From TrEMBL, chain A:
Coiled coil: none annotated. Residues 2-226 form the ABC transporter domain. This is ABC transporter. Gene3D superfamilies: P-loop containing nucleotide triphosphate hydrolases. The lineage of its organism: Bacteria, Bacillati, Bacillota, Bacilli, Bacillales. GO terms for molecular function: ATP binding; ATP hydrolysis activity. SMART domains: AAA. Belongs to the ABC transporter superfamily. InterPro entries: AAA+_ATPase, ABC_transporter-like_ATP-bd, ABC_transporter_ATP-binding, P-loop_NTPase. Keywords: ATP-binding, Nucleotide-binding, Transport. It holds the Pfam family ABC_tran. Transmembrane segments: none annotated.
Automatic annotation (TrEMBL), chain B:
This is ABC-2 type transport system permease protein. Keywords: Membrane, Transmembrane, Transmembrane helix. The keyword Membrane applies. The chain crosses the membrane at residues 21-44, 64-84, 105-132, 144-165, 177-202, 233-256, 276-294, 300-322, 334-352. It comes from the Bacteria. The keyword Methyltransferase does not apply.
Length: 298, 645
């Protein structure tokens, strides 16, 4: 489990993180969302043991990461801009990781490399997308308990993206790997993460479990007969309401079935339970602050 | 969970070797060319072999050996620590499960080994040559070991310094600059301080302090001076360097453990060091500026201008480096802080200035006094000829005389660099009863300060002064095995005296002539002879020049029948060629009377445009062939007429 409590960090005079706190449960995928410069990378560099925070505490399995070799053996950090040792081939990079990480699984590495159809050439000659694949192969072959990835899906085509997501989910399910993933793209995180946290200007402004959210908030459209009493709506916890002609569109904080039953009881002419995107939930739930999220997430 | 990986990371070592190994190979080849190969080539060529000297291995292009020793370790350290100076690399390495202490030691040990191997291999080759070939006659095993030891010492010290600065900076380019600043700083700072003290305090003897061997303060200069056929390394200095090396190692270690990786790409990583850098650079630039304007103008207003301009420039440079931009005006307050603290220092300087400048020790505290124009001569034994001990004034009256002159010198205006007329640079060193020394130096005009002039001549005319400033008074005659006497500059002839009695007589005569010398009287004689007293010890010698006014010396030479060979008489000269300044008109003189007159007035060189170049042709003996000069007014009337035509 990763636990961050009120961590603060300054770069010279600039406050980069201001009392950020969050928790990543073991064997789950946590999405760290926020615009560029929000502080996501700094959080990750602290978790990877590269930086030392000024205040607060960061614990992984109850221990601090900084200069803790035993713990760092089980953590892999994949930065947004990848780095490979100059002139190193795919195989040599594997040897380097094998020397560093005790859990290194050479067989798995070879397997992954051939699965991605990567040749044993100098990594620097590869395209960005291929380099990213090499990084994933290295990370997964090291069999970490914690995988921290900064914007990992950027610049990958849909097929590869899907394959990598599959591999990640597989490791999470099989080995109970814990994943912390950052992105500025909410849609991308929607069907990958268990939990998300939104960071803005160095602060954690929202933390949610996505399953809970989806079951908690519903989008529905219905039409009633003319002159029918709508006072029953006052009983509902409505986040957003629109009326186009005779069609009502509602975003309601409620259980799916419960809401459907209430509405069905009114004998509507039309009743559709609509799918709701994560983005909509954030925007409607945050109400006044919602616009801020629209700005954060593109 | 037991770790499967070893604490020695093969891959880190491999990566370092891939990155920096080539440098080690080149270093090996360079040393191979300089030493074994050069030695073999010289040895196998019979002609070159003749000139081969026996001895230390620093005989072979020491400058290049020195240059390699101070650059290769620095380049190596820069390559090994490059990962600290690029964010992506730094993040990559520091996210790995390796402690910083382990990274540090991996790189340091690899660096040391990469330096060790090329030096050691060359030493082994040299030992092989020594043992299995005739080359062994030209150096011995101890020479190889001393070469090995000195090379390793300097190389590893430079590597440690580079590791230290690598921790201080977050920039690749600054790493290089900072390393050399660090190793030169102690010597440079002391030199600048001394130079500026001499501007601020009248009488501050810059040469006295500058000669305290400032070169020892920096390994770069210390080893430059000691990469010689016979290095004179002091154990104290070497121990201090060793201690400094250990300190650098520990400091770098501590800094790395506390390094904030977010400051990668900053010029100075640790915030507490930034003011040190900022004000250090400002201070040094200020001192350079002040001294520069002092040297070219001598006016104090310009010196102040130099201080202000220098410090501003230094401040701008330091800020630009720290902020990596030229837009630095926002931090003008820091400069004000500097200016204010500088003003405080200058006020403090003014408070002690008067006390310092007017200080003359009271006679009862003085044990002895040196008075002369260059204290280095008496203080530094390496400038002294064998058997000579520095001499001082001890007599109460002499000491009192020096104190009187000192008092006058304090009052005398500081002589301008461009002053024309008779100047004296005087060095006074009092040695006190409490073991301390008070040293002062002054440069003043004799013509503008008549009282000073008479005191100066009185002291210079005294025997005490002559004994103290002429080494011949301290020579033990039995140390001299021969005297070489050279003729004056018209004739090429010389004589060697090796009869001990004659040597004794000559030394006594020289002493007597010096005692008789009047400092005020300019010798009429224009042509001088020279002699070298050769001593047994360390192939030392004492050089002196004399002329025909030194009657006693001449008398000894005459009695020995040597004088006629050295002296040029007008009868010796068959012809004189005169050439005008523009070198387009030549006149030949053959009349004995005219030759005599020219001979009496000839000088070594004249800048006057109406002067003539003189070439002598001799009847007997060989002419030096060198041209001399004579001024128009000294020419015989008949020649003048001839020239006018």
């Amino acid at each position: 489990m990763i636990k961050a409590v009120e961590i603060s960090k300054r770069f010279d005079r600039k406050q980069v993180l201001d009392q950020v706190g969050f928790q990543v449960r073991k064997g789950t995928i946590y999405g760290l969302l926020g615009s560029n410069g929000a502080g996501k990378t700094t959080i990750m560099r602290i978790l990877a043991g590269i930086l030392k925070h000024d205040k607060g505490c960061v614990l992984v399995d109850g221990k601090t990461v900084f200069e803790n070799v035993a713990l760092k053996q089980r953590i892999i950090f994949m930065p947004d801009i990848l780095y490979f040792l100059p002139q190193y081939t795919v195989k040599q990079m594997g040897q380097y990781y094998a020397d560093m990480y005790a859990n290194w699984d050479q067989q798995r590495y070879d397997q992954l490399i051939s699965q991605f159809k990567l040749e044993n050439k100098k990594v620097s000659t590869f395209s960005k997308g291929m380099q990213r694949q090499v990084a994933f192969c290295l990370a997964l072959a090291a069999k970490p308990d914690y995988l921290i990835m900064d914007e990992p899906l950027d610049g990958l085509d849909a097929v590869v993206r899907q394959r990598i997501k599959g591999l990640l989910i597989n490791d999470v399910a099989e080995r109970e790997m814990t994943v912390l993933i950052s992105s500025h793209n909410l849609r991308e995180m929607e069907n990958l993460c268990d939990d998300v946290g939104i960071v803005h200007k160095g602060k954690m402004i929202l933390e949610r479990n996505l399953d809970d959210m989806k079951t908690e908030v519903q989008k529905v459209q219905f039409a009633l007969r003319k002159g029918q009493d709508v006072s029953f709506l006052e009983e509902l916890n409505i986040l957003h309401q629109e009326k186009r002609g005779s069609i009502h569109l509602l975003i309601v904080k409620s259980d799916h079935q419960e809401l459907e039953e209430i509405l069905a009881a009114q004998n509507p002419v039309v009743l559709d339970m609509l799918p709701l995107s994560l983005e909509e939930i954030f925007i409607y739930e945050m109400g006044g602050a919602g616009y801020a999220i629209e700005n954060i997430l593109d | 969970m037991p770790s499967k990986t070893s604490s020695i990371k093969k891959q880190i070592i491999l990566h370092d070797v891939r990155q920096a190994g080539w440098l080690s190979v080149l270093y090996f080849l360079a040393l191979l060319l300089i030493l074994p190969i050069q030695i073999i080539i010289q040895y196998s060529n019979p002609q070159a072999q003749e000139y081969m000297e026996k001895g230390n291995l620093f005989l072979y292009i020491p400058e290049v050996q020195w240059l390699l020793s101070i650059t290769v370790p620095v380049l190596l350290g820069i390559l090994l620590l490059r990962y600290l100076h690029k964010k992506q690399v730094s993040d990559f390495i520091h996210s790995m499960p390796v402690k910083r202490s382990s990274l540090y030691h991996h790189h340091l040990v690899v660096g040391m080994v990469l330096l060790f191997i090329p030096i050691m291999l060359n030493a082994l080759i040299l030992l092989g040559l020594q043992a299995f070939s005739g080359i062994g006659d030209y150096f011995n095993i101890m020479h190889v070991f001393s070469w090995l030891g000195i090379m390793l010492f300097l190389n590893i010290f430079m590597l440690l310094a580079t590791f230290f600065t690598g921790m201080v900076t977050g920039m690749f380019s600054m790493h290089f600059v900072l390393t050399y600043i660090l190793v030169l700083l102690p010597a440079g700072l002391v030199l600048l301080l001394i130079a500026n003290m001499s501007i601020l305090f009248v009488g501050y003897p810059m040469e006295y302090y500058a000669d305290m061997a400032i070169f020892k303060f920096s390994p770069i200069s210390y080893f430059l001076i000691n990469f010689t056929p016979d290095p004179e390394l002091s154990w104290i200095v070497m121990s201090l360097y060793a201690a400094a090396g250990i300190l650098l190692y520990l400091a770098a270690f501590w800094l790395y453990a506390n390094r904030r990786m977010e400051a990668t790409s900053q010029a100075i990583v640790y915030p507490f060091m930034r003011p040190v850098f900022r004000y250090g650079v400002t201070f040094c630039f200020m001192m350079v500026g002040g001294y520069y304007f002092h040297a070219i103008s001598s006016s104090f207003a310009w010196v102040i201008f130099g201080y202000v301009a220098g410090s501003l420039l230094g401040f701008i440079v330091a800020e630009a480096i720290l902020n990596k931009t030229w837009r630095i005006y926002s931090n003008y307050k820091s400069y004000l802080v500097f200016a204010v603290s500088l003003a405080v220092v200058l006020i403090a300087v003014n408070l002690v200035k008067e006390n310092y400048e007017n200080k003359i020790p009271s006679p009862e505290n003085i044990v002895k006094v040196y008075f002369g124009d260059s204290y280095t001569y008496t203080e530094a034994p390496e400038y002294l000829e064998a058997g000579i001990k520095p001499l001082f004034f001890t007599d109460k009256q002499d000491v009192e005389l020096v104190r009187d002159l000192h008092e006058q010198a304090i009052e005398a205006p500081r002589a301008d660099n461009y002053y024309e007329g008779e100047l004296r640079s005087t060095f006074i060193v009092y040695e006190l009863k409490n073991g301390k020394k008070v040293a002062r130096s002054y440069t003043y005009s004799l013509d503008d300060n008549p009282e000073l002039k008479s005191l100066q001549y009185e002291i210079e005319g005294s025997n005490a002064y002559k004994y103290a400033n002429n080494a011949v008074f301290n020579i033990a005659p039995n140390e001299i095995y021969a005297v070489d006497v050279q003729s004056n500059d018209i004739k090429q002839s010389s004589a060697r005296i090796s009869d001990p009695e004659l040597i004794n007589a000559l030394i006594e005569a020289i002493k007597k002539d010096i005692e008789l010398e009047d400092p005020q009287a300019d010798s009429e004689e224009l042509l001088t002879y020279s002699l070298d007293l050769l001593t047994n010890k360390d192939q030392g010698y004492y050089y002196a020049s004399f002329d025909d006014s030194d009657k006693n010396t001449i008398q000894v030479l005459q009695d020995a029948g040597l004088y006629d060979d050295l002296k040029v008489y007008s009868e010796d000269i068959s012809r004189i060629d005169l050439e005008n300044f523009e070198r387009n008109n030549t006149v030949t003189v053959e009349d004995p009377e005219e030759i005599k007159q020219i001979l009496n007035h000839v000088t070594y060189y004249s800048e006057e445009e109406d002067s003539y170049f003189v070439t002598f042709n001799l009847n007997r003996g060989r002419s030096t062939g060198e041209e001399m000069s004579i001024e128009y007014e000294d020419l015989p009337e008949s020649i003048k007429n001839q020239l006018e035509e």
